[in-house]
Each structure stands twice: as C-alpha cells, then as structure tokens.
Fold this protein.
Amino acid sequence: MTSPSHRDLILDQFSLQAIPFSTAPGIKDEQALRLIVESTGAGSDDTVLDVACGGGIVVCAFARVVKHATGIDLTPAMLDRARAYATEQGLTNVSWKQGDVLPLPYPDGSFSLVTSRFAFHHFLDPKAVLAEMKRVCAPGGRVAVIDSEASPDPAKAAEFNRMEKLRDPSHVRAMPLTELTGLFAAAGLPAPRRNGYRLEGELESLLGRSFPLPGDADKIREIFAASLADDRLGIPMSREGQRIRYAYPVAVLVADKAAK
C-alpha cells in the first residue's frame, strides 16, 4: 500500500474535525476574532479572502464589517459547515470555494485583504502560499497570517511539533515567531506588524476534537504530563485537579502590500 499523500491527510482529518473544530470555544473566541479584525484594519470598503477557511468563522467575523468576504478550503465538509454557520449568523455578503492554495484560483490583485488562520502549520511550502496570498492581494492591501507559535528553543519546538503530529497527522510544522515573520520578507512583503493572543483550552477537550491514530492519545497525555514538570513543549501549562490546561501562543502578523 502507498502511504497517504499530504492532501489525503488533510481531507481525512478535517472531514472528521469539521464540526468539533468549528464549534470549539477557543476557535470561536469572539475576543480573539475581534483582535484579528482590528489588527488588519478591515473596513466597509474591503473585500477579504480567507485561505484555508475551515468552518468559516474568520470569514464571518470579517463579513460583519467588510463589503464581502470569501473563504476557500480544500475540505468539502468544512465548507458545508461554513455555509451553515453563515446562514446561522444571517450573513449574505459571503461566498465559498472548494480548492487548493497552490495556486490560488484568483487573478492578481483580486482582494484588498488576504488572511489565513491556523493553516500555515499544515502547509508543506508556507513561503509559496504566502507568495500566492500576496499575488491575489491588491496593491495597497494587506496580507495577514495568524498561526500558533513554536518555542524559540529548537528542542522544545521539535517536541511540540512531534506532539502535534501525533494529535493531527496532517500537521507539518509550527514555526517560531522569528521564522514566521521571516516568511514575509521571503515573499517580498515588508516586516509585519505583530500582535497576538493565547489559544487556551483543556487537554481532554483538545483530544476530544482530534483524531489521532490508535494509542497516540495516551502518548500525548504522557507528553503533556511531562511538560508540566520540565516545559518540554515550551507552552504555558497548568494542572487543575485531574485536568491539564494549556495556552498555545498565537501570532497575528499583518503586512501592507506596496501600492503601485
């Protein structure tokens, strides 16, 4: 048997995760969504593209303040959830497209704001994706990447990524902040403005919306328990009774594309 391709892993994982991921409190956190919208300077004249939009939560957050918001995602089940969520919110200035990120199926300069949240750690070539986001962004527009940060300590970053790949086999690599910001220069964008927040949650709830391979959930529990003692994951953690709580650092990075 051939091993599944990365595309297959994403389709498999996010078809399973469509509802549990989209309904998780940390993913729907209104304060975090407000921070993202405000950090981009989104306004009533903007047209937005959200890349790897998942269940449409970021698209819908932008749709409340912009002219139009579009989401593109590889996974049909996620887009089904996005359409349902937009209908629940009473939003009509949204559209959805099933498709891949390389290349993005839009002409140059199609949107004034291009964003992506919690997707860059799934991309095999994040620099190429950011270059595509820049291409479809209009001159004078903005490009925003929101993603979890790995520790600047290489050993802790490696252990964090090992754990995340156990939790979600479609995970590729979370990057330290310096590497995330460095992607912008590599894509021909200026240094981004930086903001951030913490994605907080509880381990069993996280595992409940994840679909690791048989036996890997116990390995993850062991890694979290060990990290309480030695910080091997490089993320804030605490124990509350029998529960382990975590706080993934999240970077919000926004760059301006030069005007012609």
User: Anything to note?
Assistant: Residues 153 and 234 are 8 Å apart (CA to CA). The first strand starts at residue 47 and ends at 51. The beta strands are 47-51, 68-73, 94-98, 111-117, 137-150, 175-176, 193-202, 237-240, 243-256.
